[in-house]
User: Fold this.
Amino acid sequence: MPLFFKISLFFFYFFFVISSSPLEYNHPLESLALFELTQVTNIVKNSYFPLNVTFHYVGLNEPNKQLVLSWLSSTHHPALPREAIVITRIDQKTHEIIVDLSSVSILSDKIYNGHGYPMLTLQEQTAADELPLSYPPFISSIKKRRLKLKEVVCQGFAVGWYGEKRKSTNRMVKVMCYYLDGTVNLYMRPIEGITITVLLDQMTIASYIDRLIVPVPKANGTDYMGSKRRRSSHESNSIKIVQPDGPSFTLDNGNTVWWGDWKFHVAYDMRAGMIISLASIFDAEKEEFRSVMYRGFVSEVFVPYIDLTEEWYYRTYFDAGEYGFGLCAVELEASKDCPENAKFIDGYFISQDGTPGKMPNVICIFERYAGDIMWRHTELAIPGKVIRKVRPEVSLVVRMVSTVGNYDYITDYEFKQSGTIKVTVGLTGLLEVRGSIYTHNDQIKEEVYGTLIAENTLGAYHDHFFTYHLDLDIDGHENSFVKNNLKTRRVVNKSSPRKSYWAVVSETAETESDARIQLGSSRGALEMVVVNPNKKTEVGNEIGYCLIPGGSATNPLLSDDDYPQIRGGFTKYNVWVTPYNKSEKWAGGLYTDQSHGDDTLAMWSLRDREIKNKDIVLWYTFGVHHVPKQEDFPIMPTLSTGFELKPTNFFQHNPVL
Amino acid sequence: MPLFFKISLFFFYFFFVISSSPLEYNHPLESLALFELTQVTNIVKNSYFPLNVTFHYVGLNEPNKQLVLSWLSSTHHPALPREAIVITRIDQKTHEIIVDLSSVSILSDKIYNGHGYPMLTLQEQTAADELPLSYPPFISSIKKRRLKLKEVVCQGFAVGWYGEKRKSTNRMVKVMCYYLDGTVNLYMRPIEGITITVLLDQMTIASYIDRLIVPVPKANGTDYMGSKRRRSSHESNSIKIVQPDGPSFTLDNGNTVWWGDWKFHVAYDMRAGMIISLASIFDAEKEEFRSVMYRGFVSEVFVPYIDLTEEWYYRTYFDAGEYGFGLCAVELEASKDCPENAKFIDGYFISQDGTPGKMPNVICIFERYAGDIMWRHTELAIPGKVIRKVRPEVSLVVRMVSTVGNYDYITDYEFKQSGTIKVTVGLTGLLEVRGSIYTHNDQIKEEVYGTLIAENTLGAYHDHFFTYHLDLDIDGHENSFVKNNLKTRRVVNKSSPRKSYWAVVSETAETESDARIQLGSSRGALEMVVVNPNKKTEVGNEIGYCLIPGGSATNPLLSDDDYPQIRGGFTKYNVWVTPYNKSEKWAGGLYTDQSHGDDTLAMWSLRDREIKNKDIVLWYTFGVHHVPKQEDFPIMPTLSTGFELKPTNFFQHNPVL
Assistant:
């Protein structure tokens, strides 16, 4: 490091120690605080001064798992190293920098030369979106279409990869433009036929094609802001959740949540969004917290569109790796996005230039009381007695909403008193539609890759695959993955009046290949359990948690050799299990934008590592094939899907008595 | 009819006209009122006087669909015939009697000579349960086990059919006994080894076998009534739903519910339980109610246990057909079974001797506000604007709980403003466990057909299959069933940089065999839609409702040739479609107890009738294979599963703007 950098770092350090009052962080997995983010980006910027540094990602480089676990089990909670991982572009190169906050120094700085690029920044997307508006060929395209330029809004999209050999400097987006003029629902008014390619590092339009003119769908009927009251709707009386004594959970200043028997940590990350860490549940009999999940987060959201037309074929998004599931998180509205009894957490992100920004109310936490029943029984069999005991269900929800352009993803973790963690993703927001010449189905004779959901409006077919990284630590760190197959057996020797029955045939996965599961015909007849093979219940059952798929454990429909599917290879199986490896976080690879699929979960898993009685990570992918319907226009009713993690002989008995 | 019967009927009629003040019923599908039930059973009893008549079922013989529909569409709502269907045993024969309430006469009276018997009555079950307690061999068995007779409680179970050729008079149950002595949770304390067969018509013990002595599991830890507060649990603050201006729905005195755009009728039936009829939704643009479902109800609940041991092999219950899903419905507790804002409906059933009984608060209706989001979007793409619009989800739930012995089934219909009907079944209550010599898994070397969930307690493997009868009338009565297959296609001629895509290949079922679907590998890549082929949206899409399976569309694991599976043949496919036929209501046959499987949905469907553009009925079966866990002991946390019926191009656009 040149001397003058060292000096400036020195001054910087003093500046910081004097001027900022760092909050004492009390959790080693707590997201970087505002002052830490500033510190990190200053260190990097100073180190490269006077070069221009663009920041694509800054997040906590979490301490080694072993350190965190000993921190957790110690009574005095020793301070752990605070490090940041920074992904930048400097001089058209991708840098992966580790910054140590206690020594205020750069620990490592690697240039990444492989395929793929870092997450897009909000600023470069905005800049790219504005380019066409002053680009004469575009202006003339707009004129030719008799549209008003001031009503045009553009949006850049990741371009994917289709086998091209590109130079590493070719970071680009394709910009698609939309028309307002009477609506705020721009996505329902695409200006089709134009392909604008923008080089991001250079921030220039690299290619411009105006191929054909297609009618822009009309504004009428697209607006979702209006409150046209419909004659038929009875005025709904107000309905509220009230907790006169306030919520029952505690949220400490390090974002650890205590609720009922549960304890867990909530963090915000620019890429993953919400991260749940160190979820554990108090066992009253053992008088201790027992671990369930070390970390759980959205690793990737793969959204391939199915439209093969020139302006659409490339649209195969990786919403976490390309846009940042956390970066796209939005402020939650009290009493609307979350009920009246919710508490909110802020998040902090880094702008392209290194300035930290606050995301107010980006996560909410609330107790959910939906009128459900936790357990009940009415007993009428005892003569002279009527026994009834009912426990209403109250659970705790942690929510983030990520709006990646048109789509709004509602991501919930619901903690139940029974020990279950229910994960739900709700899909709402706006469809990505293609403008079309057609106003009626009868006119359509070609393949249009979508549903005509309004005049001139094709709701494009697409898929959503949500891949969760679930580092389960079931009552300890060494776990195994067990498949309990329910198998039909024939009765032999007429030993019973029956002819058949079923048995549970258990199989413990030895290596990664044993744990790849495509859910399909075996559904319902397969239990998937992460167990701790080193502990048993008193009657000798393996202590575990079961993965219970929700309604839509969808498998890919694209061919294995298709480029988007190579990049999204991790969706091939619904379940994968890998040995814990701190670097294996992002199922689509660390550098997903324009990736070639050489750093995905599917590739890591080829090593077929041992996973029996190891610290293992469960990856679960579910999703929907979305054939749009007219009801999805102009804004989609929420479609929910997800999965559950359910205690399976984890407790000696029902923990909520 | 002998003269003296006619005379007594005449007097009876006068008696009734004078003494009772019949409520003017205003809905042709309204359950029989108390006075009507009295009238019906009196007519039957008088007609057979002095013979003893036992009543197994009395319910509304609903008017022909065409009549109901014209009633609905007429403005003056002409009175429709009120008829009852009565199933009785008279002189050891099963009678199927239709009673007309307006003419106070028996319209038809058929003796049923086929296989199977009517539903068991509560009274005969109670009588059978008491027999062992005064039966000397049983008393000596209890003594031999050093148990106290006064702590013994017995329960009769349907015996199934295993190929035997029985006389039609052999109505029987097998009685299983349990031990209280320190707990109310009798089901956790089975007294194993004894098989007691009771002939019901004779109410005598036909056979008694005491085969072996097995330890009775201990009482300690089985009680769910106690409120042992656990040290770790933070005291939960109270949480309530409040509607200061009251609920937004209207429930008229004929049990028609009006809520938002929805209108539907709720009825109680001794066999089906809750029945939803004539569900329709107001279309503000068309200014009319558009039909969605003519009738929806639980047709059968098949619960085969998997245990082959002598005392267990026969346990393959049909909870609706044998015990009556409605007859087993229980009183719902305000603020526990249903939230604070619920309204309740009573039900009326018939005792064995013809006396009507009231089931108070058997159904509840409430608005559900769970903190969910109906739809939302945050729009940041418009320069200088931040647009956010969020609509919280409020839905309407109609609930009944049926406690069939040990199990409690929570059945919900949730009506959403978006037009979706979500059907959920929650399973809770108590497991059926087998007493066992084992106190630890390591001791077990034989097949035990269950999980050791506590000492001496095997939670027996079993399945639950819920079969719903869904007479959908999508915007009219003539409907078709369409399978939309999402099929992978290869890109040809390098017409796109991609190599594959998917297309929607639609197939309309012509006959019943085209519509039998075993959900499995095709999951997620198959849409199942009931459409009205005679109507289209403005842009030309077929108007429809989609069946969306929930998490567990389970298929049977028993062999096709196994007796329980022959009787439960309707579970072989998750989906069946039949042409509407008033007599085809009960998937397991009208006479399910000891049935031979010759009157099931599977048999009716063999006729392979035409179903295209017909009045059709959709049958959907889902379920769970239950491998019990220690957490299910001593009372099970609710396990929920179900399906959705979702508008699919039914509306021109999202109906909730």
In short: The domain at 258-648 of chain A is CATH 2.70.98.20 (Beta-galactosidase; Chain A, domain 5). The CA atoms of residues 328 and 403 of chain A lie 5 Å apart. Residues 3-19 of chain A form the longest helix (17 residues).
